[in-house]
What we know:
It is a single chain. The chain is built from 16 helices and 17 strands. Residues 466-470 have low confidence and may be disordered. It starts with 6 loop residues before the first strand and ends in a 9-residue tail after the last helix. The protein is an alpha/beta fold. The radius of gyration is 25 Å and the shape is globular. The strands form 4 sheets. It has a 10-stranded mixed β-sheet with strand order 12-11-9-8-7-5-14-15-16-17. Strands 1-2-3 form a 3-stranded antiparallel β-sheet. The protein has a two-stranded parallel ribbon with strand order 4-13. Keywords: 4Fe-4S, Iron, Iron-sulfur, Metal-binding, S-adenosyl-L-methionine. Pfam families: Radical_SAM.
Amino acid sequence: MNDSPFIHLFNVADEYFLYDVNKNNILQIDFLLFKYFVNKNSKEMDKSIYSSIERLKKRGYLSCNKIEKIEHPMSKIIQSYLTSKLQSICLQVTQDCNLRCEYCVYSGNYLNRSHDKKIMSLETAQNAIDFLIQNSSESDRVCIGFYGGEPLLNFDVIKDTVLYALEKYPGKNYYFTLTTNGTVFNENYLSFLEEHKFSITISIDGDQKIHDMNRKFKDSDKGSFYTIMKNIERIKESYPNLAKRMMFSVVLSVSSDFMGCNEFFTNTNILKETELSVSTVSNRYKDGEHNVQKENNIISQRYELFKCILILIGKLDESCCSKMVKNYYYKLREHYKQFYITENGVKPISHPSGPCIPGAFRLFVNVDGNFFPCEKVSEISSVSKIGDLKNGFHYQNINTILNIGKLGDDMCKECWAYRYCKVCVASVDNLTNLSIEKKKDCCKRIKKEVEMMMKEYCFVSKYNAIEEGN
């Protein structure tokens, strides 16, 4: 049995740190102790090192306890959970779209289905609502989302589905969401969305040059920028309540200009007060070469992220935070707070933190009534399909996804970063099985990200910039 302490070592400049996995605490240590642990507990130990180790052990640090068995704590109750606590359903009301975006996961460049004319029938949508209500008795509030393709191409089904839910199950507390490319709004659609308090997410990638590079109308070289901007102006002017619940989805492609996007969303009046969700083009299920960001975009983004650190230590005002990274800034604060939570040790039966509870938080129902954990997985994957409206949930697939840590479980048992893992089925899905090679690649990347987060935390903590519990 390995009796080495379950720790991770790193340094920030000339300061040295120890992350104790059992306690979930980061401690600053001196160089001699750091060197001792780096050398794998060398037999040479002077009195100062011995005294330091004994003091740490008395405080409960340096335990060698590790995970003995990988098993998600929800495994034994997943069936009862999913039959009573569904929180959200996302209906793919059409697979058709009036745009042909270069980077779209349905563009043919990914191991996924492509755009086609298929739409969800009202009967399928109503059955999905029935399924949601029947399996959400313990959820105070449920979300019904609409997705595509471009969902407004099947507006009648959206409208009738909302009215069906409200009329058949009037006692339920609903909120409705819509993800749209923003090009097909009309007064009828907008009035309905405002009346029923929809939250809407509109895709816009930056100014006209940046946006139109990728987001063109079907069978045309015409970009969609001006159409979207006119619709946003219309919403702002005539539908103020809907405007308050509007946000924008920004995709940074290999052709994007990060600083150009930043300037656009900062200085365009009708966009200033609206929240952004910023992501890069997905490499999941990519068929062929991966998307690689341009070096100047990476440098610009890192500069804005560095400013977030300066804000946290009080060197810059929060108003200096770029809209493009504001969500990252808020996530940083939340991540850092995790290190204030002292744990009582590694549980012998445990699981890395990566997977969600498949289907519970965002059950994705495609036009055919098939279930997937979310819209990010491939619809042609047999691994990621977790059921259908006719037969209900497929618990064997759900448990496989939930217990993704069992794939190469020895890696997870020994992993110092398991509490901060982000590996999910979309990261390791080979369409017919889960790939251990993909998981290994994910693990390397995630460990680097977690260590960077720890380094940032140590730097920020020197300035007492994060107050416990705030």
